[in-house]
Amino acid sequence: MFGSPAFGRILKKTRCIMRKIISKPKPEKKQKKGKKSLKRVSSRGALIKKAHALLRDVVLERDKGCVCPAPEKGHSTIRQAGHLIKSTKGAVRFDLYNVSEQCSGCNGRHERFDYYYTNWFVQTFGQAEYDRLCQDANKEGLKNYEIEEIIEQLTLIHNRQLEDKTFLPRFTQQEILSGAWASIWDRDKSIIKDSISKVGQE
Q1: CA gap 185, 175 in Å, rounded
Q2: What pLDDT is attached to residue 199?
Q3: Distance of CA 190 to CAs 46, 76, 184, 196, Å?
Q4: pLDDT score recorded for residue 16
Q5: Higher pLDDT residue, 12 or 97?
Q6: 156: helix, coil or strand?
Q7: Measuring CA to CA, which of 52, 54, 100, 145 is 20 to 30 A from 62?
Q8: What would the mean pLDDT of 25-50 be, rounded to a whole number?
Q9: Nearest to 150 by CA among 74, 76, 94, 101
C-alpha cells in the first residue's frame, strides 16, 4: 500500500496543502471605525499632563495662596491650581484667568458649590471677563500641535516669573497660544511705570 502510486499521489497532495497553510500570511486585524490608536491617545495625554504641570507652577508662583474665602474649617495646606470653568473645556483649559490657586478644600467645595470661587472672580475681574470665559469655553479645543505651543509659551512665562517677581501673568489662552502675552505685559508694565512716575512728580 505505502509503495503504491495512489499513496504517492495522496502524500504529494498532503505536502502541497501543508505548504500553503504554513506560507499563508495571517490576516491583519482591522481597527474598528471611530477607535483612536493607543499611541495617539497616549501622546496627547502626555502633552496635556505636561502642560498642566507647567500651568500649576505658573499659578502657584503667581498667587501665593488660596484666592477663595476660607471655608468653616479653614484653608487646607494642600495647594492646587483650580479651574473656574472645568478643565474638560479645552478652549479655556490653559487660560490664566480661568485658573487660580485654591487649597484642596476650596477646590473640592467648588465642585459642589461654585458660588464662592465665581463670586470672587466677578468681584475681582468683573462680569464681562466672566462672560468672556463662558463664551470661550464653548469654542473648539486645542489640537496637539497647539498644546505643544502652549507648553513652550508656559515655559517662557514661568521662566520670566522666576526672573521678575513683579510679573503676575494673567492672560487668555489665545494670548498665550499666539505669544502675544509678552508684548501685552511689556505694554502694561510701561503704563504702570508712567503712572508711578506721574504720581511722584505731583
Answers
A1: 11
A2: 47
A3: 38, 38, 10, 10
A4: 59
A5: 97
A6: helix
A7: 145
A8: 66
A9: 94
For residue 120, how many other CB atoms are within 10 A of its CB? 17
> d(Cα 71, Cα 117) in Å, to the nearest integer?
11
Integer Cα distance of 145 and 41 in angstroms: 14
C-alpha–C-alpha distance, residues 41 and 193, integer Å: 47
Q: Per-residue pLDDT tens for 103-141?
A: 999 999 999 999 999 999 999 999 999 999 999 999 999
Residue 103 CA to its chain's centroid (Å) = 20
pLDDT at 30 over 90: no
CA-to-CA distance for 167 and 157, rounded, in angstroms?
9
In the chain, DSSP assigns E strands to 79-83, 99-103
pLDDT of residue 38: 44
* Count, residues in the chain: 202
Largest CA distance in the chain: 123
Global pTM reads 0.75
Residue 5 to residue 168: CA distance in whole angstroms: 94
Which element (helix H / strand E) includes 51? helix 38-63
Place of cell 500570511: 25
Give yes or no for a contact between 87 and 98, defined as CB atoms under 8 angstroms apart.
no
DSSP bridge pairs for 81: 101
More confident call, 199 vs 4: 4
% of the chain with per-residue pLDDT over 90: 68
